[in-house]
Write a structure and sequence with these properties.
mainly alpha, Histone, subunit A, two-stranded antiparallel sheet, 6 helices, 2 strands, elongated, DNA binding, phosphoprotein, chromosome
């Protein structure tokens, strides 16, 4: 059908009349492989049947989560003046975002290191701003000494 194929010049003995297949990933506008996720869902024996939209939806969710984690980890790496994302940056990225922490808080990342724990006692005390902190006292005028 015209919706599933694109006109591309192909050569060789297995040519199909100049029509090439379009992947399900490109149809859905995804980078993650829909066919691979479909195969893994069927092979995994999670259910007797797998709907046509399930692997597309799952690929979209996985792509979104991966994008979020890598985006935050890139910011963490840039803050530490690094150009390469390390497992430590992934660990800090996951634990800096409340929703990702809720989802992946119990996951152990190899070479991720420990999370920094700042005790409130060690942190410097918060000082109030200028005039509000200083209470104005009425000071009597100095008496000249003779």
């Amino acid at each position: 059908s015209p919706a599933q194929t694109r006109s591309v010049e192909k050569s060789g003995c297995f040519s199909r009349g100049g029509l090439a297949k379009i992947t399900r990933s490109s149809r859905a506008g995804l980078l993650f492989s829909v066919s691979r996720i479909d195969r893994l869902l069927r092979k995994g024996q999670f259910a007797d049947r797998v709907g046509a939209g399930a692997p597309v939806y799952m690929a979209a969710v996985l792509q979104y989560l991966t994008h979020e984690i890598v985006d935050i980890a890139g910011e963490v790496a840039a803050r530490s003046k690094k150009r390469r994302i390390s497992p430590r940056h992934l660990q800090l990225a996951i634990h800096s975002d409340s929703e990702l922490k809720k989802l992946l808080g119990g996951v152990t990342i190899s070479q991720g290191g420990v999370l920094p724990l700042n005790q409130p006692v060690v942190l410097p005390s918060k000082k109030r701003n200028g005039r509000r902190a200083i209470k104005r006292r009425i000071v009597p005028a100095p008496v000249p000494v003779k």
